[in-house]
């Protein structure tokens, strides 16, 4: 059974093909508009199967532009035929499996988190110097170890294996050693982020990963603070952006400028923020707390979206606390005859309570 759901601009979901193999292939269709035709998007696996079939897919899409079920049925039949004629992948030689087993014996099977049936994809648990567990994902080529494995890791910076060892043949142990060296370079960064996660109310991301260096923290009164740590110098002053009503964030900006000299790289980012801003950051909130996370994630009161091109609403009205994206408010104010402009700044009225609001022109 296909799993297809409507979206704002068309529909998206999964196409089930392959009979007993039950392969799920992701797809998305953007509906036709007056000035643009319908557009079909596919996952890498589906694109691989449909290679050379773009004209056939376009014909089916045009013929069934208003019939989702009809298009999916015809697309499914086409993909089923292509799956049946696709040649099976050749298995690696027996020596490949013998080598993988020896490598796993050497590093310890207790590190294995998961392994594919063909032994060509592994996930290994690697613990860093602070006791944090990290997953090293490896996709092994058929000519391993002559060619390096492809890696899947969660790190703030790109990671690639150096697969030229003059004294010995590379192995899984080589990959683990290089991954441990990469982990060691990020220990201070993760110390700072873990301290924030454990002691402050992190609004975003909901589930932090080891590759992320940004956090959005609640600071009270429905205002928040976005910060992005420097990967190479995580204890230094991060990039900061205050989000919320001006009457709340203006004093914090003043404290930041007036007390910036108090920032000390020997302290945690959290301790420095609280000292410099003269602010006690709220602790983590439990589910059901009266001041819930939803109150910090209110959509822009003009476009009714929370994220717009990756940005949260940056401005809030001092009168009614309605939040706005800077670009949305700028466009709104430009349409009002009463709006005044001084240099690159617009001054006008809130679209909800008519209190004075201002923003930079976009």
From TrEMBL:
Gene3D superfamilies: RWD domain-like, Ubiquitin Conjugating Enzyme, Zinc/RING finger domain, C3HC4 (zinc finger)
GO cellular component, one term: Fanconi anaemia nuclear complex
Domain RING-type intervals: 300-353
Keyword list, A-Z: Metal-binding, Zinc, Zinc-finger
Lineage of the organism: Eukaryota, Haptista, Haptophyta, Prymnesiophyceae, Prymnesiales
BP GO terms, sorted: interstrand cross-link repair; protein monoubiquitination
Domain of life: Eukaryota
Protein name as catalogued: E3 ubiquitin-protein ligase fancl-like protein
CDD domains found in the cross-reference section: DRWD-C_FANCL, DRWD-N_FANCL, RING-CH-C4HC3_FANCL
